[in-house]
Amino acid sequence: MQLSGKTAIVTGSNSGIGLGVAEALAAAGASVVINSFTDRDEDHALAARLADEHGVPVRYIAADMSDGDDCRQLVAKAGRCDILVNNAGIQHVAAIEEFPVDKWNAILAINLSSAFHTTAAALPMMRAAGWGRVVNIASAHGLTASPYKSAYVAAKHGVVGLTKVTALETARDPITCNAICPGYVLTPLVESQIPDQMKKHGMDRETVIREVMLDRQPSGQFATVEQIGGTTVFLCSDAAEQITGTTISVDGGWTAL
Ligand code: NAD
């Protein structure tokens, strides 16, 4: 239980990668705050289930990561933040000329600006505690690009830049900040893209997965939420104390191409 005594906040963690990261941190002994904007009974039940399974305190705090004040309030309500995982994210696919401005603004707010706000609120707590870890969930799209994903690619490149600046501003503190860049992970976000891709390419589900998605991943396999969770726990471990301001790709070789 290497993270016992630490409190972790994971934004956007009632499904997909965020949930996998929250589970991995809880399994490593951390107290965890899970978050989404939905505030349903099932969100609170999810926190209770994780607490029960891992024997650590787990709370659900509702906050809308598209709203800067809500982001800062999330950290304030948690009361303590040793580990901050900026994970909340959304996606939209359209050509630049047709990209809806409201979608552009929402993607930049949720995928990028939220990390600025939560980090600003969490760093004073980490400095006061004398230890801190910021882990930003970026993407292979933070290092490379794809057509029709302008807002997502811009936001994720921004997350990688914010990661480096945060690392430099905390370099003399016992605080690190790194980004994980996953390739494709079969989460609800990716599942939601499959029907459009099937229509666009005139392919069945399996062919879209094989020829459109995993074609970019030399391993030919999806990464898993457990692997992203394990990488997060590693970045919080003593072995990673001198790792800061970098990106770790969990992408089956995508960015090596
Ligand atoms: P997901 O849709 O399963 O999860 C997204 C999470 O964000 C959910 O918990 C949702 O409730 C939350 N969320 C959305 N809008 C929010 C808001 N306004 N306020 C608070 N929470 C909000 O998606 P995922 O695939 O698990 O993605 C998680 C992160 O991983 C995102 O940042 C995404 O860009 C990144 N990522 C995913 C993949 C992939 O292949 N799945 C690859 C690279 C990076």
Automatic annotation (TrEMBL):
Keywords: Oxidoreductase. InterPro entries: 3-OHbutyrate_DH, NAD(P)-bd_dom_sf, Sc_DH/Rdtase_CS, SDR, SDR_fam. SUPFAM superfamilies: NAD(P)-binding Rossmann-fold domains. Its EC number is 1.1.1.30. It is an enzyme of class 1 (oxidoreductase). GO terms for molecular function: 3-hydroxybutyrate dehydrogenase activity. Belongs to the short-chain dehydrogenases/reductases (SDR) family. This is 3-hydroxybutyrate dehydrogenase. It comes from Halodurantibacterium flavum.
